[in-house]
User: What shape does this take?
Amino acid sequence: MLTESTVTFIALGAIFAFSFYAVLNAGQLSLGQAGFASVAAYTSVLLAPDPDVVGDLAALLIALVIGMTAGTVAAVVLGLPTMHLRGVFLAIATLGFAEAVRIFLLNAEWTGGAQGLSVPKIVTPAIAWVVLAIVAYWFWRSGPTRYGRALEAIREDELAAGAMGIDVGRHRLGAFATAGAVAGLYGVLWAYTVRLVAPADFGFTAAIDGLVTAMVGGTTMFVGPVVGSAFLTVIPEIQRALGVEAGWIRPFVAGLLLLVVILFLPGGLAGRIPRRIRVPDLDGRGSGSGSDDGGSSDDGADLRTREHAPRGDVVARLSGLSKDYGGVHAVRGVDLEVRSGELLGLIGPNGAGKTTLVNMLSGLVAPSSGTASVLGVTAGRAPVHRVAAAGVSRTFQHSKLFDRLSALENVLVGGHLVTRPTLLRRLLWLPSARRDEQAALTHAARCLRRVGMLEAATTRAGALSYGDQRRLEIARALAADPSLLILDEPAAGMNQVEAGELAHLIRSLADDGLAVLLIEHNVGLVRQVCDRVVVLNFGEVIATGAPSDVAADPRVVEAYLGTEA
Amino acid sequence: MSHRARVFLAATAVTVTLAACSSGGTGDGGGSLVGEGTGADCTIGSPVPVGAALSLTGAAASYGESQRQGLELAAEQLNARGGVEYELTVEDDQTDPRQGIAVFEQLTADDGVSVIIGPTLSNGGFQAQPIAQEEGVPVLAISNTADGITEQGDYIFRDSLTEAQVIPQTVAKAKEVYGAQSAVVMYSNDDAFTEAGYEVFAQALDAEGIEVAETLEFSTADTDFRALLTEAKAADADLLVVSGLIEAAIPLVTQARELGIDVPIVGGNGFNNPQLMADAGDAAEGVVVGAAWNSASDNPENTAFLADFEEKHGSQPDQFAAQAFAGLMLIDTAVRASCSGERDAIKDGLGTIDGVPSVLGELTINDARDAEHEAVVQIVEDGTFTVLD
Assistant: This one.
């Protein structure tokens, strides 16, 4: 049943599926891979030396290098103008590219048109599996690195990933280029396997084949594409071996099996494989410098450290900051200073413009007028990840966790800015990579412990209770070792006890020297912990001062309770 | 991990169980493939395994299905004749190179067939036939018309005429009958078969001194040709030459007549299908088709074939069915030549075929292992193909 070609095609199918996995894992749906593969196949067939002259293996190796380069270049050229597209729009744009390539190949003089070019057969099952092993190795080793986690974070929530300091555009383009390189490998292997490279083999059907293989296998585990390809390649073989009559019944049965897999295993065949992540043992570390009460200042020398502004320095200065949405003035001419070590409360009725204000402060929204200068950057003009890199970290009013990642992984992503890139060193198994990953894990575990969630480290973020999700967001924001921490309604949905613990935590952060900006509806909580309170109504600051003074201010009372009729 | 293991275990278990249930394997031939007697008296003990790799599903499914019908009819008639029994295995390559290659590997290895028929498309032929060549299994291509198919090796034969054997004759005939001086050429450029056909048309038109007023390209998926046909009409040529598949031929011919293009339409092998008259109706009248198979031929083999096919399958055969039918008959001739169903004997037998009567006419396989037989130029008249004089 398993003939030579079946074994080869399992490997080829898996490699092609990996080119979809590369982008799906980063949350992008691209259908251009067949286009990259055909660009690579034709380029290498035309440019690679004759196997009769340099030998089979040498010719194939050169062809693979050419193909990988061609695939990458094609992906970058396509990626630069299309990377701002999302979801179905990116899929359509990339599909358009693949179709354009196909039409070009059909009509160009040197491609042999629909009849294609003849290619010597060089690829053996062993060669195909060696290339597959290399590709799989890349995805295996890159998964648990700073780069790999950043891609997963982008897949789960792009906005939050950016707020954690991840350069979303660059990472997305990186994933896209990887997809191009892997698709290029596939195109070359395909050509040197089937003896003929023709445009028909890189059409829409091929793209859908690759996508289906990746989805059936699963897009969150690196073995997914291999499992998917084995499954789909073997189905027709099994049917033949069983003596199912050739004809429509076979594709029909294959279609049904596909349906069953997608219905009952929505994460793909490999989706059930548990993700393993070891939680570092914080207490058992004899050599660790960490004290038992935790804290962000003792994270060891393995992490990048940030120069924090001395207590009392201005970390953020807003002047005349306004935001209009059409005719709605969400924020009007706000002037505000936030200092290190200060816990500043921002309150106001619903729709007062609090969230818009902090969105401008963290760089998510550009102001209509005025400036927000934060830790040396101008928010709104600098991209979100730059603002985060300057030392601004935040939580969101509605939890924006990376739902399919564990709590610990969420916090690891939060540590993006303070950990070192380990991808290249992990590929080479350098011990320093292991040390750096360990340091990142320890740092993340400490942040989790600080919010009291170490026990839930391996739980999926999406499966946590609402209150735990709010605390996890704080841990994730803390992991970035920020100078300014923005908390957007962290106590929402918490009970009295939880809120009390939270208040204690927030106060201790400010006492450590952080600047904390707290948006909260719970006026009691604000009065209890804040040094200073700013009250916003209809986008304007109506009061500012010590909590007790502000609470007594008639304008504030009016804003909250309304005037007597 | 354990889950994946379970899936595979389950799949394997199912395979093994069901494979055990499906009775007996294919009868592999030992020495008993060599029989006694010669020619019509030849008797071989065990059945001769014949594999066919056809596109029963996928893009080329309509051709593959015709071919299967032709082969099944031939196998039935040969087995009824006695002496040599043929065990025909029809496999589907799904119009997919991966399946085509896998099927060829299985036919040459496990199943141990003596000869392979197919595959349906020329591109598939270039991808799969070298496997049979390497394994020393003779291949008879029954529908590959591209150049270079038989150049792949001395085990590769074909009974289908190449475009180069049919089209020049068609163009010459059209010039003779209609006195054509100029032509508009249309072809679908995303299909290997029709593209190759176009190239030969272009050469033939040039050789006959017919001026090409306009060359228009379309896609196999197109169904609306009005814009192109308007352009073609404006060129005001004496002929409309089309290299397209039957799926394109029907709407193209219909729309051409609707637009008032009444010059003769000349088509290639793709047009040689009774569906043209069935679906295009009156519009098909006057369409000239160069073909490898003269469906109107009154030679005894063809007359019987038309009647038997109609009886077995309830429809009229097309060229693909005729070539498939002729293919298995030729294999029978080759087997009986030395009364052996072994691979090399069949290979030698196919090489010696010379002037054998078949539904395609008297057929010879030349030194290049290509078929030679009379091609025919037909015209649609009163809803049937008749020879154009």
Observations:
- DSSP finds 22 helices and twelve strands in chain A.
- Chain A has a mean pLDDT of 90.
- The CA atoms of residues 239 and 250 of chain A lie 7 Å apart.
- The interface with chain B takes residues 1, 3-6, 9, 106-107, 113-116, 118, 121, 194-196, 198-201, 223, 227, 230-231, 233-234, 236-238, 240-243, 246-248, 250-251, 269-270, 272-273 of chain A (CB under 8 Å).
